[in-house]
């Protein structure tokens, strides 16, 4: 299937292409020709540059976008701390937000919907590593909201890029560069610094977020696969310019800065960009368009073949963050145990389930809107029921995961679990290990000794 079937119809237009140089103007003639910063813009707009990387980053890594707006972003009051004693999404060791580094396999029941909060206040850090102030590491979140953000509110994270994975409900996201509609089985990336407002056209929402503190998400190299496959660049969608002319209303700009919440007031909308061009922008992707690669002979390949996006460390092939999915796919391998093998991994693996059932966890404990964490070198693999089923299955071609979509946030870092994730949410399954792997039985049989003739 080349795309997902969505219950909520698309209502916006997009540009297509990952890491492409895009340009968009809501009024023809907004973008200067042959230059970026004219002395006087023909429509009286201000020129502003949004830099996702250092000016001197190599050309292949450089991410900059020029915007042409009615009032510059710097025109606001001072940022003041907001809810400083309760709002903390920083993976650090503080009295009110302890981080627990533990080797146990963890699994969570489905996280609750919360109809009392908006997008900003629905963010709960479950696990993370590193420090956004040093631009290293990542955070793994659950969001669950039931209210639109305020009519004159906008939010941005100075800490990192948000990779948003909806599980329930629809997100209507207005960004500075345009509008994006995001539904379950789509993902959306909002890079560091972009202001946006989230409304909920179908009511309560729930899902997962990976916040990347260092680097940016890229498409993985394809190596011997060739030039096509996995997530194809043409299937990523970028918003088109869309603006309001509002210079009279009081707006509240909310900033997540070093994990804490700040607020500034201004008398103009942040959504006043009439045109833009560049390489730094929000985007979305339909997971149904992922071109699955797999074995057509024997053995189960490494799960890296399911990587949608990656953010590499300074060591080639080792990711600060990979976003991996397990979509519907044909299994045809001969004489092969088809689910993932048992393994201990130098990478940490945080898994979630958008819909359906994951083939390596058939015992019923891994449910949509739930999650699991297998930290560095914590052994894991199929549960006992999945092992017995797969070991005795008729190895005919079979379509696996029809109607299902599981995903993984994978990282080379040792991930710590927050107090909220381990205790406050009250979703950790205490018997995860006991139910999944302790029932495994020995099947070892010694060879029959040969009788001397």
TrEMBL record:
Annotated binding of Fe cation, by residue: 343, 349, 380
Keyword Transferase: no
Protein family per UniProt: Belongs to the homogentisate dioxygenase family.
Lineage: Eukaryota, Fungi, Dikarya, Ascomycota, Pezizomycotina
InterPro entries in UniProt: HgmA_C, HgmA_N, Homogentis_dOase, RmlC-like_jellyroll, RmlC_Cupin_sf
Species annotation: Massarina eburnea CBS 473.64
Cofactor(s) needed by this chain: Fe cation
GO biological process: L-phenylalanine catabolic process; L-tyrosine catabolic process
Catalytic site positions: 300
Signal sequence segment: none
Binding site for homogentisate: 358, 380
GO molecular function, one term: homogentisate 1,2-dioxygenase activity
Enzyme Commission no: 1.13.11.5
Protein name: homogentisate 1,2-dioxygenase
NCBIfam families from the UniProt entry: hmgA (TIGR01015)
